[in-house]
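As agreed, record copied across for absentees:
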Amino acid sequence: MILEHAVLNVKKGQGRAFEAAMAKARPLIEATPGFQKMELRRCVETKDRYLLLVWWGSVEAHTEGFRQSDRYAEWRAALHHFYEPFPLVQHYEQPLGDGGGGSPL
């Protein structure tokens, strides 16, 4: 399983509107083959900052299955105008030490 991670800095004062837009857009990503689960968390220290975590069956499920789909165009239209700056999205392997192929810790 792959974990997608993005810190979403939302334009000042737009947090609640972003949350509403994300709630409407969520079914778009959930409909993607390989999607496992998603969490969106508000930052405690910085207003209008969020942590997006998405679990995928593979990197390709995200980069090809979702980002190359018509659903991604809808996702982008609904959400991308909220971000300032645009987030860096990265993918992470299984936790180390759990039999996921990493070094034991």
